Amino acid sequence: MATYGSILIPLPLERAAPVLREVCVAAYAAPAGPGFCLVHPDRFIDGNGVFSLAGPVGAALGVPVLAAFQYDGDRLELEVWRDGVRAYRYDSWPGIRDDKPADGTPEDADPAAFLDFAAGPVDGYRLACALADTPLDVRDMDVDGEPGYVWAQRLHWDVLAALGHPDQVIGRAQRDHCHFGRAPRILAELLESGELVVVGTADSREDTPKSP
What we know:
Layout: E1 4-9, H1 13-23, E2 27-31, E3 37-41, H2 50-61, E4 65-71, E5 75-82, E6 85-91, H3 124-131, H4 152-162, H5 167-173, H6 177-181, H7 184-193, E7 197-199
Antiparallel strand pairs: 1-3, 1-4, 2-3, 2-7, 4-5, 5-6
Helix pairs in contact: 1-2, 3-4
C-alpha cells in the first residue's frame, strides 16, 4: 500500500496559503472542507517532511496542526503540534524505531489529544476504538488473525471520520506529494480549478507544471 504524508490545518486554505508559501520548500495544498486545509509536502527534500514542517507551520499560523505519516500500510504516526511544539505523538506500531518515543500507542492513546481537529460531531467510541487499533468493521481486521487493522490507512480513515471529516476530505488526506506527479493531466486540471495549489519557496519536481 502507498506511503503518504499530510498535514491537517484548522484554517481555510486562503488564510493558510500565504504562510505555507513562505514556510514550505515545496508542497501542494488543498481545501479540506469548511475551516480546514491540507498540505502535502515533498518529503524527499531534507527538512520538508510533515513532522519537520508541522512545528513551523503551526507556529506561523497560530493554530494547532495534525501531521500524519502512513508507511506502506503497516504503520500510522500522528503528531499534534501546538505553538510550534510537539504536544502529542501517536504511533500505531511502536518499537520499530526507538528515536521518537510515542505519547500514545494502541494500548494507551488519548482521544482528547485530537479534538482540536474535529470538523463536526465527534464519534468518541469510534475514535477510541481506532486509536486502540480495534476496527469496528470486520472487513478492516487483520486477515491473519492478528488483532488490529490490516491496513494502517484504514485506521487513519476511522480517526478522521470519527472527528467528523467527510469521505472526500479523508481521501485527500491520504494522498502524498509524489502521487500527484504520477498523473500530470489530473494534476494540471486540479491546479487550474484551484482544488490544488503549489506552495513553497522552490519547485521540487520537474513534472510540476510551471507557469509560462
